[in-house]
Amino acid sequence: MTDRTSSPCGDKPNCVSTQDEREKHQLAPFTLTSHASIDAIENAALQLPGAKTAVKEEGYLRIECTSKIMRFVDDLELRIEGNTLLVRSESRTGYSDFGVNRKRAEQLRALLRSAEQVQ
C-alpha cells in the first residue's frame, strides 16, 4: 500500500482526511507543537482500540485498526509535513463506516493533545 495521506477520500462515506475539502470527509488541521516527533505520535496512535503499526518510515506511519467483533481493518495514515500532521483514516471494506473513522481521528487528536504533540 502506498502513502495516501495527501490524497482526498473517494466518494464512499467511510473516509476522513485533513487533505479533503468536502465537509463529509474533512478533518480540521492537526497543528504540531515544536517538540512533536513521529515516535510520540506513534505511541499516541497505538492507544487507539485495535491499533498496531503496519509501516513506519521517516515522518510517516500507517496504523492498522482492527474492529473488535467483525475484525474489519481500517488504515490510519499519518505524515509530518512541517508543523502539520496529515491525517487520513479509511475503511478498507464496506460503504459506510457509521462515523468510526471520524471518531478515531478525533480520539487521536485528544491523545496527541494530552501528549503535547498537537496544539
Describe this structure as you would to a colleague:
- This protein has helices spanning 38-45, 100-114, and strands at residues 15-17, 30-31, 51-57, 60-66, 73-81, 84-91.
- Strands 1, 2, 3, 4, 5 and 6 form a six-stranded antiparallel β-sheet that branches.
- It has a single domain, classed as Kinase associated domain 1, KA1 (TATA-Binding Protein, 2-Layer Sandwich), CATH 3.30.310.80.
- Helices cover 19% and strands 30% of the residues.
- It has 119 residues and is of the alpha+beta class.
- It starts with 14 loop residues before the first strand and ends in a 5-residue tail after the last helix.
- The model has no long low-confidence stretch (mean pLDDT 97).
- This is DUF1499 domain-containing protein.
Q: Give the topology string: H per helix, E per strand.
A: EEHEEEEH
Mean pLDDT: 97
Shape: globular
Examine the coordinates and then state which fold CATH places here, giving the name of the CATH topology: TATA-Binding Protein
Total DSSP helices:
2
Query: In the CATH hierarchy, what is the superfamily?
Result: Kinase associated domain 1, KA1
Distance between the termini: 30 Å
SS elements, strand count: 6
Class based on secondary structure composition and strand pairing: alpha+beta
The percent range for helix content is 10-25%
- Major sheet: 6 strands, antiparallel
CATH architecture grouping = 2-Layer Sandwich
Number of domains: 1
Low-confidence stretches: none
Strand content: 25-35%
What is the radius of gyration? 13 Å
User: What's the CATH class label?
Assistant: Alpha Beta
